[in-house]
User: What shape does this take?
Amino acid sequence: MKTISTEKHPIYIGNDSVSELNNFLFADNYSSVFILVDENTKKHCLTKINKDIPLLKKAKIISIKSGEKNKNFKTCVKIWTELLKQNADRRSLLINLGGGMISDIGGFAASTFKRGIDFINIPTTLLAQTDASSGGKTGVDFNEYKNQIGTFAFPKAVFIIPSFLKTLDKRQLLSGFAEVLKHALVADRNYWKKISTTSLPLWEKGARDEVWEEIISRSIQIKNEIVSKDPYENGLRKALNFGHTIGHAIESLSLRKDKKHLLHGEAIAIGMMCESYLSRKYCGLPSKEMEEINSFILSVFNPKPIKHSTQTLLAMMKQDKKNRDSEINFTLLSSSGKAEINNSCSEELIEEAIKFFNSLLA
Assistant: This one.
């Protein structure tokens, strides 16, 4: 087991981290414990932690529907209602057992219930294990815009169990892998080289838990190094938004319009390709490095062309939380492993980037 100590909370990584969770629950005298799950984690993950941690057998279960389309106030009201019905108080604990959606909405619900109760995250997807479960961002989508309402609220601890990744299909693993790529591209050139040249595709059968443990640990270390210097995203933390300005717009439109909508990481992969072009034009990212980024993402994600009009995408981007002075704000790359924050690109250049992306798929 590996332990990463952040200023706000510890992160335990390894299949044996359940023992630390047991110690954590035993040490804190909570009046009641609640576990937030969706239909997937209730079926595949809840039994395991209940078996390994006897103290959880008396926990009260709150079940919500999975999927980004359910990350809204209606679902929050359900969580708050269940907490009230089950007599939760300020000394209650909420355990968020699930992917990024569970971490986001569970953290938000806990941070606002009775002005804040403790919560911990047990992420079960690669996306949540490498990114969403740590860092202190909570939130819900509002009027179909991503993460418009939320808080900065840090869990008491995060427990990462790599064996939960075996419950995921290839598409879900790839969605999380996009955030792994992002961490490498914004902060660690050697890490980018390593994961982009690995001989065994990690999402195929045969990837061992210890391999995932190493990758998850490095991604979390990168995020922690950035977040510890800027926990409330006033500056440096914006580096973690590479690929997200265009990616969030595409994801939001897909949620609105597509019957089989894009997963978060699938949209971010497209966003990183578009924004690598902006990086080339605006921040001097070498052409060879831009080509390497796009070639690798194309080989892994097999993305589809962007069919939304540029004006529709721009309207979505203008709602991005990072914007200032009515300008669309980007995190871009000056090289692989080096992010540049606070870049305002013209609408014409953004349209050019989208056309460039589509040309790669022609």
Notes: The chain has two domains: 2-167, 179-189+238-360.
